[in-house]
Amino acid sequence: MNSSEFRRRGKEMVEYVADYLEDIEKRQVYPSVQPGYLRPLMPSCAPQEPDTYEDIIKDVEKLIMPGAASPACTELEMVMMDWLGKMLQLPEAFLMEKGGEGGGVIQGSASESTLISLLAARTKAVRRLQAASPEMAEAAIHDKLVAYCSDQAHSSVERASLIGGVRLKAVPSDDKFAMTASALQEALGKDKAAGLIPFFVVVTLGTTSCCSFDRLSEVGPLCNKEDLWLHIDAAYAGSAFICPEFRHLLNGVEFADSFNFNPHKWLLVNFDCSAMWVKSRADLTGAFKLDPVYLKHRHQDSGLITDYRHWQLPLGRRFRSLKLWFVFRMYGVTGLQAYIRKHVGLARELESAVRQDPRFEICAEVVLGLVCFRLKGSNKLNEALLEKINTAKKIHLVPCRLRDQFLLRFAICSRVVESSHVHLAWEHIRGLATDLLRAEAEPKAAAAEIKN
Ligand SMILES: *Cc1c(COP(=O)(O)O)cnc(C)c1O
């Protein structure tokens, strides 16, 4: 949608809301639809090709308004999470259409998804241990529980362990910045020998520092064998798995108990929208369910409905699935795939430009839209380059430290980015590097002259 259409549609939307408010007395306060009304009225997959905006708005009036906020909000979310799950080729166990044990839910953030998984896993572990040894007190169990992630995991995993009150061990990653099964096995062995109780593992697909991928297909079976909850954090990279050529990066998801990524990071959906799937919804509802009288509702025990309040921290929920519905239909699966491919292509273009300048080096494999690079030389030199880039304020880069190296990260992530922007940015960086290297060389040259 270009900006002139966006202006027109925005104005139409204000009219729609104003009409709604003016005519609100004519609308029913409670919907007449039955639970489960929506799914049969909708296609079972996202469209491959884009729909028109008119078609979508017509469907809002036809399909959503009769269901008002409830049950439409829950039911559209269930269908959208299935559409998205199918785009990612998730195993059927994570989908809801056949009424299985698993399912998807929209959370606000990847941090929340990790926390919820950790808390559910903690409850499950405590119950399992107490079933085997009823004399064990819950507090004594909490004291021994250990969660694991790689040393490249996002800080939100450590926060989840702090909030959840359990130990967290960072498993050393290998030379590709990935957690391997043997490194995890070693950590588990040590902790079990010390009397601790491993219960939860976070695998990261697409780490924040350098977009590395933990070895899911070997860590997964180990987690299953050891009875550990496996959570996958693919906050950034997950969007790419809608492309068949990147789907292999998700191989092993069948071993996971929970999987999460953020469509708000790289799938054209506005903040916030974090997609989370679990293999067994009872793990969440079993851990977090409370039913005070003021929250009881008519169909509660009918077995017909999904009650998302038991899947999340807050009680109230936003109608976030509308954003998914609009985006999936406006772009179509092919449009979304093209968007991901364009960004990955631009990252590769930048990578080859960096490789053509012998002063620079690429520091981690470029898999998706992130390019990690540095000037050959000291960390101090690279810190000075970053400082120059960020004070010039033409572009903004966020650095990272990998092992002992300070590096610069170039992330392709704008909806409107073009090849020309990437090349302009790179020429800008090269120019600043030239200035910096010259300034570095001058005092040395001057010193050499004095000596002579
Ligand atoms: C961005 C990111 C997060 C944090 O996401 P929030 O939704 O802001 O909590 C967590 N993990 C990874 C790998 C990320 O890239």
UniProtKB/TrEMBL annotation:
<keyword id="KW-0127">Catecholamine biosynthesis</keyword>
<dbReference type="Pfam" id="PF00282">
    <property type="entry name" value="Pyridoxal_deC"/>
</dbReference>
<dbReference type="InterPro" id="IPR015424">
    <property type="entry name" value="PyrdxlP-dep_Trfase"/>
</dbReference>
<keyword id="KW-0210">Decarboxylase</keyword>
<dbReference type="GO" id="GO:0004058">
    <property type="term" value="F:aromatic-L-amino-acid decarboxylase activity"/>
</dbReference>
<keyword id="KW-0456">Lyase</keyword>
<dbReference type="GO" id="GO:0006520">
    <property type="term" value="P:amino acid metabolic process"/>
</dbReference>
<dbReference type="GO" id="GO:0030170">
    <property type="term" value="F:pyridoxal phosphate binding"/>
</dbReference>
<dbReference type="GO" id="GO:0042427">
    <property type="term" value="P:serotonin biosynthetic process"/>
</dbReference>
<keyword id="KW-0663">Pyridoxal phosphate</keyword>
<dbReference type="InterPro" id="IPR015422">
    <property type="entry name" value="PyrdxlP-dep_Trfase_small"/>
</dbReference>
<dbReference type="GO" id="GO:0019752">
    <property type="term" value="P:carboxylic acid metabolic process"/>
</dbReference>
<protein>
    <recommendedName>
        <fullName>Aromatic-L-amino-acid decarboxylase</fullName>
        <ecNumber>4.1.1.28</ecNumber>
    </recommendedName>
</protein>
<dbReference type="GO" id="GO:0005737">
    <property type="term" value="C:cytoplasm"/>
</dbReference>
<dbReference type="InterPro" id="IPR021115">
    <property type="entry name" value="Pyridoxal-P_BS"/>
</dbReference>
<feature type="modified residue" description="N6-(pyridoxal phosphate)lysine">
    <location>
        <position position="265"/>
    </location>
</feature>
<dbReference type="InterPro" id="IPR010977">
    <property type="entry name" value="Aromatic_deC"/>
</dbReference>
<dbReference type="GO" id="GO:0042423">
    <property type="term" value="P:catecholamine biosynthetic process"/>
</dbReference>
<dbReference type="InterPro" id="IPR002129">
    <property type="entry name" value="PyrdxlP-dep_de-COase"/>
</dbReference>
<dbReference type="InterPro" id="IPR015421">
    <property type="entry name" value="PyrdxlP-dep_Trfase_major"/>
</dbReference>
<comment type="similarity">
    <text>Belongs to the group II decarboxylase family.</text>
</comment>
<comment type="subunit">
    <text>Homodimer.</text>
</comment>
<comment type="pathway">
    <text>Catecholamine biosynthesis; dopamine biosynthesis; dopamine from L-tyrosine: step 2/2.</text>
</comment>
